[in-house]
């Protein structure tokens, strides 16, 4: 995913990710009690000399206990990636002899932070949690019910933001406390290198020294899984039962990880949300971009090491200018795969389509995929959009269709097909459904279904009663439902029993998938495996039901 998600949402007013602002809500359950008895009003935070201490292979770490869940924040899983380590595969962190405090989040990966909160409505809904930004960013966070010998299922969360922005705790909905408590599981979230720092392919101009440079951000993600393999048993987790899950760019990340040879055996279940991938960037194009970067920096090939000495922000700006110049040169050519993202180098990431070998990497790893009805929407703070006509919607689709370019002359036919599939929808909703189409996710499910492990497909349609009901089932909304955090994400859900009831069902399904590779649970109707023939899809809403590929005819018009 190449779009800068935040910039696009802020300029287009899309219903993007938001964050719960109610930081004072108790989290012992998703619901805040109406009253609290004196006997319940006891200490809930514990930190001290002998509290929440765990062993890692690098040394001991000390966290804290909050509402019965032990937390560790900012544990190093790799060394500082600056200087001579820039563009290089992740190195192991140095060991320590003292008990290291792990009570605050690690640094976010280098990214452009200017004007992050420039839009007032976006800042209200998209309440990003950011801390310091630096190249010393290979850190992870752990939530666990107990530091013991129990082998609990493990969730490893990969954040969204394309491959350009984000961090492991940017949404309040990313917090692992509630899911850890509800399901007796261990929850891990990570930061890793992003953008030009993580995915500049300099192998074509820098030779063997830089042969991995286009994929060091992806290798960071593998390094985090290696840390889990080596250490998570000391945190009450099972290293042989690890689910990786991500949303938007994070969804593409977990699809890529499932295809990487270095991650084989470290991943046991995969859950991509609102983002997927079945092929990495073509290396001929990524190496061309690397040459543009060197030229933009004013360096010759024998001076390439000087790129490691530049301040990280200066380097990112140089690389972004190079990327823009390459796009301009391509003009009308398809440059949708140009940018800074994982590279099909044939070493770390296969050149062929992911999951193409029925008996290949991850062939025994189940997958559960979910997207939302209205991934892209623009009516949240644009009430006039509610009254557009069908002809106006068709004209808009010609120019822009969500995260992609416009549909051009095909727009009217596509619109009419979606209107037929959803006869009760108004023009703004039909336009949004078409722009938010499931084409790529069906491609991913189809590719994965060629392997022996099952694929389960969901489509999230729940709409919050906020902004006069104009938010709809927007991009990122479902995250807090899966993680049992709907009362944390008030600017997404509004809070209360209605979203919580669906969250109970969805989190039950996720927890069962983590345990068994099958999301079926008592709370939902029977959830059949996805097949190419029927396209079985669980519709997640106030009333959940299974439908067979409900938008197939419309989607095939794209």
Account of the protein in words:
There is one protein chain. The chain has about 550 residues and is an alpha/beta fold. The protein contains 17 helices and 19 strands. Strand 18 (about 535-540) and strand 19 form a beta hairpin. The protein is globular.
Q: SS-based structural class? A: alpha/beta
β-sheet strand percentage: 15-25%
State the name of the first-level CATH class of the largest domain.
Alpha Beta
Secondary structure tally, helices: 17
Oligomer: single chain
| Domain count | 2
Write a concise keyword list for the protein shown above:
alpha/beta, globular, twelve-stranded mixed β-sheet, Rossmann fold, 558 residues, 2 domains
In short:
The chain is α/β, with parallel strands linked by helices and 558 residues long.
List the helices and strands and how they pair.
Elements: H1 5-12, E1 45-46, E2 53-56, E3 59-62, E4 64-66, E5 69-76, E6 100-101, H2 120-125, E7 139-144, E8 152-158, H3 177-183, E9 186-190, H4 195-199, H5 203-206, H6 216-231, E10 237-247, H7 249-257, E11 269-273, E12 281-282, H8 283-296, H9 312-330, E13 343-344, E14 367-372, H10 390-399, E15 400-401, E16 404-405, H11 411-421, H12 427-435, H13 439-448, E17 455-460, H14 479-482, H15 490-493, H16 497-516, E18 536-540, E19 545-548, H17 552-555
Parallel strand pairs: 3-6, 8-9, 8-10, 10-11, 11-14, 12-13, 14-17, 17-18
Antiparallel strand pairs: 1-4, 2-3, 4-5, 5-7, 7-9, 15-16, 18-19
């Amino acid at each position: 995913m190449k779009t800068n998600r935040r910039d696009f949402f802020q300029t287009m007013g899309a219903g993007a990710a938001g964050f719960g602002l109610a930081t004072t809500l108790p989290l012992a359950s998703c619901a805040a009690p109406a009253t609290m008895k004196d006997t319940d009003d006891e200490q809930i935070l514990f930190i001290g000399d002998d509290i929440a201490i765990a062993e890692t292979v690098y040394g001991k770490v000390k966290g804290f206990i909050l509402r019965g869940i032990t937390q560790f924040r900012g544990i190093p899983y790799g060394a500082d990636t600056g200087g001579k380590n820039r563009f290089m595969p992740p190195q192991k962190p140095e060991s320590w002899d003292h008990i290291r405090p792990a009570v605050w989040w690690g640094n976010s990966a280098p990214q452009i932070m200017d004007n992050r909160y420039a839009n007032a409505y976006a800042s209200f809904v998209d309440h990003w949690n950011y801390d310091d930004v630096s190249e010393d960013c290979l850190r992870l966070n752990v939530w666990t019910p107990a530091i013991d010998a129990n082998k609990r299922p493990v969730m490893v969360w990969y954040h969204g933001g394309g491959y350009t922005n984000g961090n492991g705790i940017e949404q309040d909905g990313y917090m692992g406390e509630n899911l850890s408590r509800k399901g007796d599981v261990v929850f891990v979230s990570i930061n890793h290198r992003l953008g030009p720092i993580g995915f500049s392919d300099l192998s074509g101009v820098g030779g063997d020294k830089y042969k991995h440079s286009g994929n060091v951000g992806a290798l960071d993600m593998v390094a985090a899984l290696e840390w889990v393999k080596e250490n998570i048993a000391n945190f009450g987790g099972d290293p042989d039962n690890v689910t990786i899950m991500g949303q938007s760019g994070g969804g593409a990340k977990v699809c890529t990880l499932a295809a990487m040879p270095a991650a084989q055996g470290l991943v046991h279940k995969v859950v991509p949300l609102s983002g997927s991938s079945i092929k990495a960037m073509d290396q001929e194009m990524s190496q061309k971009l690397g040459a543009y970067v060197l030229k933009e920096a004013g360096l010759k090939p024998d001076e390439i090491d000087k790129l490691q000495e530049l301040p990280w922000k200066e380097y990112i700006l140089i690389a972004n200018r190079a990327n823009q110049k390459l796009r301009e040169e391509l003009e009308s050519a398809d440059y949708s795969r140009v940018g800074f993202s994982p590279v099909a180098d044939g070493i770390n990431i296969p050149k062929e389509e992911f999951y193409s070998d029925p008996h290949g990497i991850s062939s025994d790893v189940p997958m559960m995929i979910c997207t939302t009805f209205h991934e892209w929407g623009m009516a949240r703070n644009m009430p006039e959009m509610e009254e557009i006509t069908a002809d106006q919607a068709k004209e808009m689709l010609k120019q822009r269709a969500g995260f992609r370019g416009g549909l051009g002359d095909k727009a009217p036919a596509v619109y009419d097909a979606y209107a037929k599939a959803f006869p009760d929808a108004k023009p703004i909703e039909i336009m949004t459904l078409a722009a938010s189409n499931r084409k790529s996710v069906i491609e991913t499910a189809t590719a994965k279904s060629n392997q022996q492990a099952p694929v389960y497909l969901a489509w999230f349609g729940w709409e919050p009663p906020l902004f006069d009901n104009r938010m709809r089932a927007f991009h990122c909304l479902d995250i807090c439902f899966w993680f049992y955090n709907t009362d944390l994400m008030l600017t997404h859900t509004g809070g209360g029993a209605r979203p919580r009831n669906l969250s109970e069902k969805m989190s039950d399904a996720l927890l069962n998938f983590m345990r068994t590779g099958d999301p079926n649970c008592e709370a939902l109707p029977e959830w059949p495996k996805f097949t190419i023939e029927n396209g079985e899809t669980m519709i997640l809403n106030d009333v959940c039901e299974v439908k067979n590929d409900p938008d197939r005819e419309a989607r095939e018009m794209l």
